[in-house]
Amino acid sequence: MIPRAPLVAAAITAAIAACSDPTGLDDAVWFAFVTNRDGNDEIYLLDHGGRTVNLTAHPAADGGPVWSPDGSRIAFISTREGNEDIFVTTADGADLTNVTHHPAADTDPEWSPDGSRIAFTSTRDGNEEVYVIDADGDGVMRLTNHRAPDRDPQWAPDGTQIAFTSARRDRAEVFVIDLDGLRLQQISDGAADNDVTPVWSPDGARIAFETDRNGASDIYVMNRDGTGAVNLSRHPAHDTQPVWSPDGSRVAFLSNRDGNWEVYVVNADGTGPTNVSNDSGRDANPVWSVNSLQIAFESRRTGDWDIFLVNGDGSGLTNLTSHPANEATPRWRPSQ
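The chain above was modelled as a monomer; its predicted structure follows.
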């Protein structure tokens, strides 16, 4: 365990304690995000009053923040030891641990639903494979083992399987694997095309993914076993980055159907596609609020990247960061 500098930890704790919490979350921290406002990529926290604090405070590059399910910790990627490793810190910045600690590149951290383990992608065996490790850095296990790259691990909500993308069939497909690594299933079949970035529905019954089986990229949804695949976005433009709302009723995604990249929302049955970001600037990385009512995303409409908030119907657009540096990769803190 590597202690944080006492003054930095104290500053974070004081900032959190001083904040109001109008939405009813137990703590005042609202978002984690990545910014280069200190000259390099750092992970910041944002409270409901618009105040920010630097959580990582290191000259190396830090990024890819992912909250633990209980909102008490953040896993992230850092190059502070010379290569990409996965670190875990408490939300007050008091404790920091390098959980992978390997000279290879370790990326794509994803918490297990119970917060006890982290799935990740690593090149430590010569190509990208999916690994699982205890959240304290013990018990590392290679889950996949193939000469083709395996990446994008996503835990099933019940914690029994991990979905991932693999090119082991000479094209990218979606696979699921049990946690003991023994039962592996290819569940997408795009013929000669590519199926990537699987995302489980909150109830674990379905998986959304991106595919180019129709020429341009589309968002599809299929049952957990791969049956019943349907085109959710249904448009000749490119659609990408599917994200389920926590209540499972809608999917947010990116589309360039209006001539630039915008955030769209569609009902889970494919009806009612709506452009909710609606600007000539480029938008990216949509994420839902825990109550499924709002979407945070990053946008370059102000000249640099800022984090915006919008209601699920496209109303109430707000710039949350308004800073001349770049802010990106917003991540809501889970409700506690």
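Residues 1-27 have pLDDT under 50 and may be disordered.
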